Amino acid sequence: MVINTITHRKKLIVTLILVCVGVSACGFKAPLYYPTPAQRAELEAKEKRIQARKEARRAQERAEREARKAQAEKEAQQASEHTRQSDSNSN
Question: How is the protein disposed in the membrane (predicted)?
């Protein structure tokens, strides 16, 4: 009977430990405090700066793509003009 009680306690303790670990290991990890209005404003300002940098980077990449495309079109046009001129000179 004593052995049965010890086994039962061990199972209960192991089960409780597993439940605690399982519950603490899953889900959304949130801060343990609510930010003050000043901290919240600082976080929002930081997020806005991050978004502004991302937008600036996207705009720069877009401008670079357009510049490369315009340069390629200009080179293609010059090549076709050069081809036409060399064809007309050879005739």
Answer: Lipid-anchor
